[in-house]
Amino acid sequence: MGQTNATSWRGFVFTGFSRFGELQLLLFALFLSLYLVTLTSNVFIIVLIRLDSHLHTPMYLFLSFLSFSETCYTLGIIPRMLSSLVRGGQDISFMGCAVQMFFSASWACTNCFLLAVMGFDRYVAICTPLRYASRMVPTLCAQLVGTSFLSGYLFGLGMTLVIFRLPFCSSHEIQHFFCDTPPVLSLACGDIGLSELGVLILSLLVLVVSFSFIIVSYTCILAAILRIPSTEGQKKAFPTCASRLAAVVVHYGCASSMNLRPKASYSLERDQLIAVTDTVVTPLLNPIIYSLRNRAVQTALRNAFRGQLLGKG
User: Fold this and answer.
1) Pick from 86, 90, 88: nearest CA to 25
2) For residue 173, what are the β-bridge partners?
3) What is each CA distance from 33 to 14, 21, 280, 293, in whole angstroms?
4) Strands in 161-252 per DSSP E
5) Is the C-alpha dihedral spanning 107, 109, 111, 117 positive or negative?
6) At 292, is the pLDDT very low, low, confident or very high (cuts 50, 70, 90)?
7) What does residue 301 show for φ and ψ, rounded to 5 degrees?
8) pLDDT score for 233
9) Which domains does the chain have, with CATH numbers?
10) What distance in Å separates the CA atoms of residue 298 and residue 160, rounded to the nearest whole number?
11) CB-facing half-sphere around the CA of 54: CA atoms within 13 A
12) Residue 273 C-beta-side C-alpha neighbours within 13 Å
């Protein structure tokens, strides 16, 4: 118990980028550029959907909350990561690490549930268009969003409690750039089998359930697209569906690779690459694929810029 208290008092040190040496400044410039584009895109989408009455529909409501969730997810990870690239290994307290893990896990789980909700919304819109307005009423939309956020927080809390109940009597160096579950779990000592099983079960519940929901929704959507009589109509609908599925596969592929495997297979290089993809690249893909390529969003953007220009004139 003395060892645990000592580690709790000492906290942890991030050393994930220490081996890159002089390349750290180059990585800092690259990640900062991507982060600013991601942050600006997501915030702009939230504001645009809020201000344009034509975008006050269930689909864009879910898009705005996904952008909000992605923004919160990156805010909890990337600023500290950028700081560690400039200043070298950065300290974080035991409680600070637990808080970061809670929020990063919560927002990551929320993203999964929101993607499932968005798949359901598109299923109702495409497969039962005549019933869409009567089904996707504001009350149901609010319940779906609220359930996604509440479930995300509960699963994030569960993962954090499962890991931080363990004694940390090994090295206090986290070979990563944030308090993710695999690298923190690798520092625990004693019998971690039960905690490892708990993390695996929670991860399976989030990833498998939400991903299965998405696959069923998009399978029905693809079947509906194939039933479109005109080839031209199929060509218009299929690219949008394929691009959204690609974003989902990247998101779930990264999350599954990081969480659905035992501690023994933990690899620093591979996990950092996957984590960078999940925290830097994927949040950038979402506004591009789900919003900025959308025709209604493009029209709203043009109207916003036209109105700004007219106002200046």
Assistant:
1) 86
2) 13
3) 22, 20, 10, 21
4) 173-174
5) negative
6) low
7) -65, -45
8) 66
9) 13-297 (1.20.1070.10)
10) 40
11) 10
12) 7
